[in-house]
């Protein structure tokens, strides 16, 4: 392992949340070697890590987590003490178009990583950890009231959430069967910089900027609980270092928004930033055919994480949203690079028939 005290693999480190987690770990833990293991799918982007990719404790490995042989070789090469697993197919709409891609990466890929950890850590599991990053969507959907707690039964309803639920179950199966040291966290919707513009907030920012229609699914009544992505990364850091093996932690923003209210807030914020008349961008709102099986409401109860480990969100939503809009307006090159031909094709497939 050379001069490093610890060797940590972060899978999916070139994605949205993964890049924030990688940046935090590379900067905060110079004595740890951080290996970003990423297949660079449409969602993976090494530009997300330009500011840290020259630091001596950062390494990138271009690899698919479903490829057992390659993952085995990486474990041999780096002798990982821990894995923080974020690599996944992550977009619900794409899971409706192509469910098996989600079964492959999210279920098989997680299985390959778990099995490789089991083999490599069989003699000594001290200070080893498989940290699985999951989602609140495994709990299904809420009505008008109530919250998801760590005890809420799993009830996934999309191919994406079902594949994440299956991966969570596999993680716990390796804990119970092989005593693999694992922790899972289930987080609500993230927002912030470097978010791929297929998801609600960056898609709306990009469309408002270009005066394109703003496609709101159904009546816009669905509710999501939004968390600043850097607060999620901070929660992962806290749980990674202080969480209890075998436990699950819910992470959320205590910040529920109806989609339509959120889109209207973005419109008014961007009208001001872009020097447009008040109400101008709202005229772009277009109600389109609803998402199949669209979950009505997500809301996380993050009390356990707060009480046990002292974590709480740091940013007010309006402040975080303004920072996010500013980031997109100031990073035209990034958004231009990720909205090329492949994205245009996806956008046409996803929205032309709605
Ligand atoms: P993302 O789609 O932005 O990034 C996924 C990353 O995984 C990309 O870099 C991609 O190249 C990589 N990847 C995909 N398939 C791979 C494979 N087979 N092998 C190696 N790398 C592969 O995703 P995100 O939004 O940053 O989500 C990261 C994790 O957090 C996911 O596990 C997701 O389920 C979970 N999560 C996301 C949110 C959210 O709001 N985005 C909320 C809670 C949990
Ligand atoms: O809750 C955590 C989950 O949040 C993560 O596990 C997922 O990886 C992440 O993608 C996110 O899932 P959602 O489906 O909630 O996110 P999305 O941004 O796709 O949609 C948010 C809401 O906005 C949802 O109710 C659907 C709606 N929507 C979305 C898009 C892309 C629209 O109305 N119009 C759109 O064009």
Name a few traits of the molecule.
354 residues; Rossmann fold; 12 strands; 12 helices; alpha/beta; 7-stranded parallel β-sheet; binds 2'deoxy-thymidine-5'-diphospho-alpha-D-glucose; binds nicotinamide-adenine-dinucleotide; 3-stranded mixed β-sheet
Describe the structure.
With 354 residues, the protein is of the alpha/beta class. It has a domain at 6-195 and 227-254 and 296-315 and 343-351: Rossmann fold, CATH 3.40.50.720. 42% of the residues lie in helices and 17% in strands. It is built from 12 helices and 12 strands. The chain has a 7-stranded parallel beta sheet with strand order 3-2-1-4-5-6-10, with helices on both faces. A 3-stranded mixed beta sheet has the order 7-9-11. Helix 1 links the parallel strand 1 (6-11) and strand 2. Helix 1 crosses helix 7 (229-242). It starts with 5 loop residues before the first strand and ends with a helix. The mean pLDDT is 97. 2'deoxy-thymidine-5'-diphospho-alpha-D-glucose binds at residues 90-92, 135-137, 188-189, 199-200, 203, 215-217, 222, 224, 259, 291, 298.
Class of the domain at 6-195 and 227-254 and 296-315 and 343-351, according to the CATH hierarchy? Alpha Beta
CATH superfamily of the domain at 6-195 and 227-254 and 296-315 and 343-351: NAD(P)-binding Rossmann-like Domain
CATH architecture of the domain at 6-195 and 227-254 and 296-315 and 343-351: 3-Layer(aba) Sandwich
Low-confidence stretches: none
First-last Cα distance? 53 Å
- List of distinct ligands in this structure: nicotinamide-adenine-dinucleotide, 2'deoxy-thymidine-5'-diphospho-alpha-D-glucose
SSE topology string: EHEEHEHHEHEEHEEHEEHEHHHH
Radius of gyration: 20 Å
The coarse overall form would be globular
What is the fold-level CATH name, i.e. the topology of the domain at 6-195 and 227-254 and 296-315 and 343-351? Rossmann fold
